[in-house]
Amino acid sequence: MNKSSSRRRAQIGEFWRRFRKNKVAMLGLVILIVIVGMAVFADLIVPYSKCVEQLGADKLQGPSLRHWFGTDELGRDLFARIVHGSRNSLMVGVTTSLLALLVGATLGASAAYFGGMVDNIIMRLIDIFTCIPPILLSLAVVAALGKTLRNLIIAMTISCIPGTVRLIRSVVITVAEQDYVEAARSYGTSNARIIFRYVLPNAMGPIIVNTTMMISDMILSAAGLSFIGMGIQPPRPEWGALLSNAQSYLFTAPYMLFFPGIFIILTSMAFNLVGDGLTDALDPKLKD
């Protein structure tokens, strides 16, 4: 038990040493920590009431000491809406990616492990969904179920499951052929235990990296859907919806476009930089 714990701590220490050598990835991690902290402590940073409080006298006021990011067309504080909007944007991105990972890991690992008829059935179903562009599939599901946060998460999860299944299947195929998997079979270990105890944990490197990148894509997709009015509905704040509101004031109040846009870009970039760092830190070929 002690040897196992010591080995695990050594592996974590080696991973962290290699990750922090990547200065760009560390920059992404710092940005990500700041943005996640902003979402977690949003209520302490600025009261939610400022997101919906309409001040007629302060309509379309530029950035100032009173309103750091200015106000929108209804006089609502843009800083408060961006801070609380980070919760919705991050929640959609993270929740969607984790749900897609859960379903994709189950289907992809099953297809690779069992092969044969199981593999054919699962992959042919995935091929059907792959024929539909992800954004179009998301739009169709939201249009059918309704414009709510829950339906947005369902729609985006469905749209990114096919890619996740394909990736996990390709990774698990090589792991399922290893000697320790055959040894587990010979001891009569159940298929479910082999998949979730031995196969998936040893394929986690590429899966973790892909999930990190997928969060970035889902944040951008959620912003895009909200921008065209098919995502999170007002008055609930969300970065893409804030961009949509700013269309009509592009020349009269450009700050309304700049601030939510820069947060979308920074968050997406941070996840991508962290994903690149994880790729380098988890790749055994790059060990020094």
Quick rundown:
The chain has 13 helices and no strands. With 288 residues, the protein is an all-alpha fold.
Descriptive overview:
This protein is mainly α and 288 residues long. It has helices spanning 2-20, 23-40, 42-45, 49-52, 78-114, 116-130, 134-145, 149-175, 179-186, 191-199, 204-227, 239-246, 255-282. The longest helix has 37 residues, at 78-114. It is globular, with a radius of gyration of 22 Å.
Keywords:
288 residues, mainly alpha
Outline the fold blueprint:
Elements: H1 2-20, H2 23-40, H3 42-45, H4 49-52, H5 78-114, H6 116-130, H7 134-145, H8 149-175, H9 179-186, H10 191-199, H11 204-227, H12 239-246, H13 255-282
Would you tell me the structural class of the helices and strands?
mainly alpha
Shape: globular
Cα separation of the termini: 28 Å
Measured by DSSP, the beta-strand proportion falls in under 5%
Gyration radius from CA atoms, angstroms: 22 Å
Low-confidence residue ranges? none
Summed over residues and divided by their number, the pLDDT gives a mean of 81
State the helix count. 13
Q: SSE order, as H and E?
A: HHHHHHHHHHHHH
User: How many β-strand stretches?
Assistant: 0
Helix content: over 70%
Biggest sheet record? none
